[in-house]
């Protein structure tokens, strides 16, 4: 057992426990995850993911690693935009991958997709294996995000692209307070009503508040070795894209 602690929402817990707790959260909500994303964001998560693809500009033949890829949203978008290529979806939680395999897109793209259970901090892939690494609304659930960024750098080929979509902070205090009121009062109730799980969605809301702001996280991306690192706010900073290159 490690004596180091980390955040699990607003709780401080031993680092060793976080992966198991995160697995429990997403295992619990897997069957309703896609529906809840639409309800919680009023469908805006789709706009954010499309903005991610616009900046990423997938090219034919590229190999994607989508970490915390869950039910395949990013992988499907990537393959459609690229026209040809391959996507590996990695997730800590097997029930999420099982839900992804059930989707119609998964059947249509089966020859271009792999589904792998694995940990973002210890990727089961060789160095210089992928052209693109993405992680969408997942890195805040990783026990040590800096290690996940270092692993992303390791598995990308020289010239490879990192793209991260994550909830962030609104740089306007009043707007942030309004958003917090919605998040803490409405989202857990929606989780209870739709997924039968208030606690998991309470954790997800709290985990957003514990994640570094845009500039702090940008420095973490640079620290992992990525060059030309930049970020773009989405919806006034409710979400944010971070991009970097393995130069």
Give, in order, the helices and strands: EEHHHEHEHHEEHEHHHEE
Main beta sheet: 7 strands, mixed
Overall residue-averaged pLDDT value: 93
Give me the count of strands: 9
Gap between N and C termini: 37 Å
The helix fraction, in percent, is: 40-55%
Number of helices: 10
Q: Unreliable runs, pLDDT <50, ≥5 residues?
A: none
**From the helix content, strand content and strand pairing, which structural class follows?**
alpha/beta
- The outline comes out as globular
Strand content: 15-25%
Structure write-up:
The strands form two sheets. Strands 5-4-3-6-7-9-8 form a seven-stranded mixed β-sheet, with helices on both faces. It has ten helices and nine strands. It starts with a strand and ends with a strand. By secondary structure, it is an alpha/beta fold. The relative contact order is 0.15. The longest helix is centred in the C-terminal third of the chain and has 23 residues. Helix 1 packs across helix 9. Strand 1 and strand 2 form a beta hairpin.
């Amino acid at each position: 057992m490690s004596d180091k602690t980390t955040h699990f929402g607003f709780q401080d817990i031993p680092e060793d426990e976080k992966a198991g707790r995160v697995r429990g959260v997403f295992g619990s909500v897997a069957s309703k995850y896609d529906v809840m994303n639409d309800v919680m964001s009023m469908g805006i998560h789709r706009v954010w993911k499309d903005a991610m693809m616009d900046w990423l500009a997938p090219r034919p033949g590229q190999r994607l690693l989508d970490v915390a890829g869950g039910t395949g949203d990013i992988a499907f978008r990537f393959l459609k935009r690229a026209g040809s290529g391959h996507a590996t979806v990695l997730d800590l939680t097997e029930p999420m991958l099982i839900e992804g395999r059930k989707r119609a897109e998964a059947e249509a793209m089966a020859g271009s997709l792999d589904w792998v259970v694995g940990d973002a901090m210890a990727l089961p892939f060789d160095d210089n294996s992928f052209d693109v690494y993405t992680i969408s609304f997942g890195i805040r659930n990783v026990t040590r995000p800096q290690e996940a960024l270092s692993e992303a750098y390791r598995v990308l080929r020289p010239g490879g692209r990192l793209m991260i979509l994550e909830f962030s902070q609104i740089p306007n205090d009043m707007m942030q307070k309004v958003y917090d009121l919605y998040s803490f009062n409405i989202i857990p109730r929606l989780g209870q009503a739709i997924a039968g799980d208030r606690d998991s969605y309470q954790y997800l809301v709290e985990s957003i508040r514990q994640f570094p702001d845009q500039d702090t996280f940008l420095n973490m991306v640079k620290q992992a070795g990525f060059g030309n690192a930049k970020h773009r706010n989405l919806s006034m900073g409710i979400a944010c894209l971070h991009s970097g290159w393995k130069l």
